[in-house]
Design goal:
single chain; mainly alpha; flat
Length: about 160
């Protein structure tokens, strides 16, 4: 597991560096009359990803090598990876046809209940919270419109 963590962290650091370099080209500041420049949000996300990857690499380099400590050796580990990939695929498909908010209303509870095995009250609070954070953070705060559902475009629904 150690070798895989180090390699994956390194690849994510390279990817983050590419995104950061592109954000310098696009501009990542704030325009007084227009709002955020095109590279602002990707820049900070890439910076966060770089920092997290560097931390994972540090932990991987610091840890001692353990034999037989592989994640995918047993059936449970493989099923967790398949569940994560399946929910991400469902989210991606729904996002294209229904927009960010409908996709998140389906993805968040599926992920939190099925993978996290949390109580329904937690699922509902998390789902409502994440949709509100995305809406107010992106649409209201940063004034970045996200993909909407076709029903919104026809004036039949509010998200």
């Amino acid at each position: 597991m150690r070798k895989g963590e180090i390699i994956t962290a390194g690849l994510f650091m390279v990817l983050s560096g590419i995104v950061i370099a592109e954000c310098f080209r696009l501009g990542f500041g704030w325009e007084p009359q227009a709002g955020p420049q095109a590279g602002m949000v990707p820049f900070y996300l890439a910076l966060l990803m770089f920092g997290c990857s560097a931390y994972v690499m540090y932990l991987g380099l610091k840890s001692e090598k353990k034999e037989g400590d592989n994640f995918f050796i047993n059936k449970d580990g493989m099923m967790e990876a398949i569940k994560i990939a399946f929910t991400a695929l469902i989210f991606s498909i729904i996002l294209v046809y229904a927009g960010v908010y409908f996709a998140m209303l389906i993805y968040a509870p599926l992920f939190v209940k099925w993978l996290g095995k949390h109580k329904w009250s937690t699922v509902i609070l998390f789902t409502a919270g994440i949709v509100l954070v995305i809406y107010f953070g992106m649409e209201v705060g940063l004034k970045i419109p996200l993909p909407r559902s076709p029903l919104y475009m026809q004036g039949k629904f509010f998200i």
